Every structure is written in C-alpha cells, then in structure tokens.
Amino acid sequence: MPNYVPFKLTADTLPSLSGRITCPDYDRNTLHPRIAHVGVGGFHRAHFAVYNDDLLRMEKSDWAIDGIGLTEGDRKMAETMDEQDGLYTLISRSAEDEQARIIGSIMGFHFSPGGARELCELIASEDYRIVSLTVTEKGYLLKGDNRDLDLDAPPVVHDLQEPENPKSVVGFLFRIAQKRLAAGTPLPTFLSCDNIPHNGSVLRKIVLQYGKLVDPKTADVLEHSGCFPNSMVDRITPGTTDSLRDYVQEKWGIEDSWPVVCEDFIQWVVEDRFCNGRPAWEEAGAVFVDDVTPYERMKIRLLNGSHSALAYISYLLDHRDVDRAMQDADVRSFVQKYMAEIEPSVGEIPGIDLKDYQRILVERFSNPAIRDQVLRLAEDGSAKLPNMVLDPVSELLSEGNSCSFAAFAVAAWIRFLKGADDRGEMIPVLDPRAEELTAAAKACDNSVRPFLELPSLFHEVIKQNDSFVGEMDKWFQKITAEPRGALRALLEEHEAEEKRK
Length: 501
Description:
Strand content: 5-15%
Distance between the termini: 57 Å
Number of helices: 22
Strand order of the largest sheet: 6-3-2-7-10
Helix content: 40-55%
Structural class: alpha/beta
Radius of gyration: 23 Å
C-alpha cells in the first residue's frame, strides 16, 4: 500500500491529490448551481450526485448541485460539506474490485434547521431549475392507508402557522413555488429520489394538500403547471463508518470526514417531465421513460422488500452483515423463495427478465466488499414495510395466492420489535414509531392480532385473511421459540409442498 502524505480533502488540496486518485478534471469555478437537493446523505452522494459528476466529466453540462439541510440531523453533513468544499471520496466495490474517485458535483450546502425563511428567498430568487430530495419516506410525513399528509405532525403544524418560515419539506417546496409564482419566474421541477411508489405523485399530492390550506390560488397554479416526475433509484449504499474513514486515509492519504462506499451497480429510471430544463443525464446512463411505474414496482417489491424480509430473521440469527447473512444457506434460500413468491405482483417489465433480475439481486446482496449492515435494512420498518411488503401481499391475497414467506418475514419483524433476543440482549429498534411498535409486539402472545390493530400499517385485506394471519401466528410462535428451527421448518414445508405439486 502506498505511503502517502495525508491531505485534508478540500478544493485547495485537489491538485496534490490528483496524482493518487481520480479527481474532477473540470473547472468547478465555471459551474452553475441549478439543482437544490434536500437530504444530502450517503445515497444521494452515491447516486444522483454521481450521475451529475459523470456528465460534468464528459463536458456535457455545467449544472452543479447545492445541498439543503432542513433538520438538526443535517448539521454534521453541513459542517463536512463546508469544510471540504462539497468534495468527498466515493468507493464503489464489486466482489472482485474497487474504484475510487473524488466527486465534485456538489458546490455548496445551505443549512437552516430552525426555519427556512431566508433559504426560501435564496432558492426562489436564484436560477435553480430543479429542487430534488432524498429524505426517506418518514420525511414525507405521511399517514393512513391513503398516504395523506399528516397535518398533526409538528413540522406541518408549525408551517401552517408560519408558512413563510417552513420547517417541513412540504412547506419548503410550497413556499418556493409561492415565491416563484409571485415574482413571475418559472417554477422549478420538484424531483423525488426516494424509495416510495409513485414518489413524484405522492410528493405532488401532499404539497397540494398543504398548499390548499395555506394559499389556494398558488396551489391551483401548481396543480396545473407544476412538474413532479416519478423516478426509480437503485444503488446499495451502506452507512459510513470510522473504519471506512480510516481506510480512505490509509490507502489514499485522504482525510475525508464523510466518504461514501457503495456497490458498483447503479440504476436511475426517470419520467421525462421537467418544466424548466434538465441536464442530459441519459448520457451518463440514466433512463428516461414516459411511465416509471413498472420499474419502481419491480425495484421496491423485489429489492427493497427482500431487504426488509431478510433483515429481521437475519438479525435474530446473529448476522450483522448482509453478505454474511447471505452466506447462510437457509437465509439465502429464504430470500430466493421470498422473491419468487412476490414476483407475480410485479407483472411484466419492459426489457427486463425478472428471473435474471432476481439472480442479480442475490449476487448484489452477497457482495462481500460492501459489508452492508443488517440493522440499516431493519431501520424504519413502519415506513418501509407497508409499501415494500404489505402492498404486494395485499394484492396477492386478493387474487387467492398464498404468501407463506411474506407471513414469515412479517412475523420475524414483530419478534424483532420486542426489543430483546432470546438471550435477553437488547435489540436496537430504530423507527419513528419505536415505542408504539415495541409495546404492540410485546402484547403479542398466542396471536399477532394486537400488532395488526396498529394504525396505518396493515390493509384490511390482510387483517381479514384468516389463513395469512394464521400463518403469521404460527411463524411468530416458532420464531420466538427458536429462530433457526422456524426458518428450516418453513423451508422444509415449502419443499414438501413443491413435491406434492
């Protein structure tokens, strides 16, 4: 390993670093911040920012990104982006190789956790053409089966009282639209990059729900003239660890406070509905389509749903890394069979062989170079499972299909939520509804019915399906008694059923 003199990653040190790692070869001083992105986490910096960086390297765009932080949780990223001039190290890894580069497409970061009055003025007055976001599903503040805006959420309550100084993403976006229209300047495109079915449509719905309470006239114009394209995003991106920071410094001689590691696979499918221009991201590999629905359904149900399905039983089996879990023959078989069970809910996808797609997913999950964390996949289950797992299950049950592997996955989630394993060791439940979920899981004894009564989780078609609920009851009891034995019993039952067919 080379013995480099370490440099702190900044714009001033880029010339010194260019001899050891791939650095931006374009003049960042000539770029124009045309994109404001809310939620600059690891995924955005491994995905959207990379597509934009690729285009800059091709000299086919001069659009840069400015990051936006609206919550106190964004403070560390704001400090890091400021200290490093928006630069960071990206490590992409396959099972056999890795590539490292410095990404330079993020130019600035605006942090406003106490209310975004001045920030709205800035975004509205400057020539930002796109306002995009990656805030995870919980950032949308949804409630109920209809996924409406939660008007009782504290940030929304605040914004309804002080709409000119918003704290929520919805209030922020609407205030920008309000000020743009008042000034007679073009609206930006509002681009969601979150793992939510019909993410742009959901964003449009809740922005309009909020807007009609605050300023019906602006909401009416936005309803008819606003652009909220749906998109499907995909790249496995584990959280940044101290060991990754140490690795980047030891191997590359770069002091980077927040490097990013990701798999070598990347995908972005976007509806081509932009009202104020866009870069030619298709030159960098993005796919533009008229309707993203089939692609997002495939990804959310097979990739994200399988991630959630494997997370809880894997943790109960003492696996902490996803690739190690996938080396467990029982877990690997479970994941493969879960995907096969869910596949009929996906339908046909233009240009995609679903069997091949599932095979590639198993390979991606098994990538030992990524070391994705099981607990990362287990986070925010109350936001993830309803659309990633329970939506397809509802459809399959309505069509008369059995869903034994999905019933097992949900039962494992409930067992996980009890907050302690069978040795009494604490299980960290990282979920905005953690207290409520844990209390309901602990109330489950001979039946999971207490858990099913939690609001905004289970569709009626699930709660009223005695066969599926019976499967959940059965597997919950077996998992509680002995997780390994329960998983093997499931696989053996399936094998016996296949032989009877």
